[in-house]
Amino acid sequence: MNETQAVSALSALAHAQRLRVFRALVVAGPEGLTPSILADQLDVARNTLSFHLKELAHAGLVTIEQQGRNLIYRAEYSRMNGLIGYLTEHCCQGGVCEVSPSSAICTTC
């Protein structure tokens, strides 16, 4: 991931509704969710949800698959992991990090 892609992903996630949508898709796993299920789960208007899904897709954080008359949205885990990797690639000044097993957070930083 490069800086431009990271900024795009972070910008898309820098909105409370979009962050909630993305987290719901991460929780849903590879099965994904339809917009109607997402709207019901998150109690958000469908037209508002559509706008947020478009922004997340533009940033490459979600994928869209048409299944019959339904659209299935899924979190793009490789992009999410790429963003996390980009943010942490120089953690501990390039040394080996000591990660807490309970929190998966670097304890040496």
From TrEMBL:
Gene Ontology molecular function: DNA binding; DNA-binding transcription factor activity
Record InterPro entries: ArsR-like_HTH (IPR011991), HTH_ArsR_DNA-bd_dom (IPR001845), Metal_resp_trans_reg (IPR051011), WH-like_DNA-bd_sf (IPR036388), WH_DNA-bd_sf (IPR036390)
Domain HTH arsR-type, chain residue ranges per copy: 1-95
KW Lipid metabolism (keyword) present: no
Keyword Cytoplasm: no
SUPFAM superfamilies for this protein: Winged helix' DNA-binding domain
Keywords: DNA-binding, Transcription, Transcription regulation
Record Pfam families: HTH_20 (PF12840)
Gene3D superfamilies (alphabetical): Winged helix-like DNA-binding domain superfamily/Winged helix DNA-binding domain
Name of this chain's protein: Helix-turn-helix domain protein
Annotated organism of origin: Accumulibacter regalis
